[in-house]
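Prompt: For my understanding, could you write out one protein's sequence and backbone structure tokens?
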Amino acid sequence: MKKNTLKLLAVAFLISTTAVVFQSCSDDDDDEIVVTNPGTGAASDPNNFKGEIKSGETVTLDPSKLYKLTGALAVKAGGTLVIPAGTRIEASGGTSAYITVEQDGKIMANGTATNPIVMTSPNPTPGSWGGLVICGKAPINKGTSATAEVGNATYGGTNASDNSGVIKYVRIEYAGAIYQADKEFNGLSLFGVGNGTVIDNVSLINGSDDGIEFFGGTVNVSNIISVGNEDDAFDWTEGWNGTATNIYTKRRASGVGNRGIEADNNSNNNDANPRSNPTIKNATFIGGTVGAENDAIKLRVGTHGILDNIVLSNWSTGINVEHDASVSYFNGGGKITNIKFDTNVTTKASLKSSTGAPVTASATLFTENASATGAGSGTATPTWAAGWAGI
């Protein structure tokens, strides 16, 4: 959208909740942005930012203020949280501090390349807060609906085009935690999120669990950075069907962290539908050659998918496929193409059946391409991440 002159829309009411609203458009942002804090509800005290945004409420943050997330913030059905470019949210309190957007709630987080939104912590340590959780109404294979691991919000449904809002040019730092065996916070957790949701240019830095994880849904993402997280960089399960374009991930050099991709369908029923079947295109996965679970790409428990133009560097195993339902699909060939094993990949591919028995990789399991560019610049930081991503 062409850059427009800043427009001011002011409506004054003789009540205590007077609000002033600004709207602007720029080359980096095609959506209207409301830029002043209404001074009511969950945002009434920037030093104690938490609570609920209820149906009919639109809470708009003021980018000139620092918001201190001190507990859980829930955007309920019919509520909207608007976060303009340049807004900074600092969270503390460990897993008690996180943001959840529930079904039929919306987040409008519109940063720009020169003025990103930053969600971080004053304590620069992985696991300092719970991260961002989005729950939509798109299909999953865990049931018609389910309850999210954190926040106890319902997710899943039948609306593939469900819209939870916009997340653009957002950096999430020091989030994520494992506080029970089956309950984990990630940097960005996407539960049954539909493809009406826009997720573009998002950076997940130094988290304590996965950088980004998809629990079913149909959402598409692009320009994703996942660096320095202590578990998997990019994770999907429960029937995710979407596309991911331009992905750049990097494990800590110390060996802390696990896989580049961990990909599942359903561990209880490997053939559950909708089956996980995303398209991953233009991706770079950089490992550390030491530490546990040192796989660049792990495809298991029935996931399908298409992977193309992938650069792998510094991994014990490049492509690891497990369980019959995934092995038979990928070993047939044509699903993993244009792979560049850049440096220090000890084993290019490993396959195991559901019983754990080794399976011989077919000659067509993957195709190599020494000219593959991955996220855009091979193992170097992609140009599209410059200035906003925090790496």
Observations:
- The two ends are 28 Å apart (CA to CA).
- The helical segments are 324-330.
- The chain is about 0% helix and 40% strand.
